[in-house]
What does this fold into?
Amino acid sequence: MSVCDSFCVVDCDVPMSPMDGTVDTPDHTREGAIVEYMCDDGFRPSANFTSTCESTALWTPPPEDHNCTFVTGTKFANLFLFLKCLYFVSSQCHSVAA
It folds into this structure.
């Protein structure tokens, strides 16, 4: 048995949030901690939305495996697409005029 087996604390650090989402971390990110990923309104999780801090100090599954997928066919989704398009056109106009 090594000294580390008894005294070392494995910490996975706070994982990154998915694009168009957030991560809910417990009061610690040590081995055994479970984090939950959530999607913003108008998005849904593409897969299992939790990760566990392993003894390797890595999250399993890794944070980059968690994605939020845009939900089409809802009033919110249509408004979101319209506003995103409007922003893109507006920003292109400003950069051309500059």
Q: What stands out?
A: Confidence is low (pLDDT under 50) at residues 94-98. DSSP finds two helices and six strands in the chain.
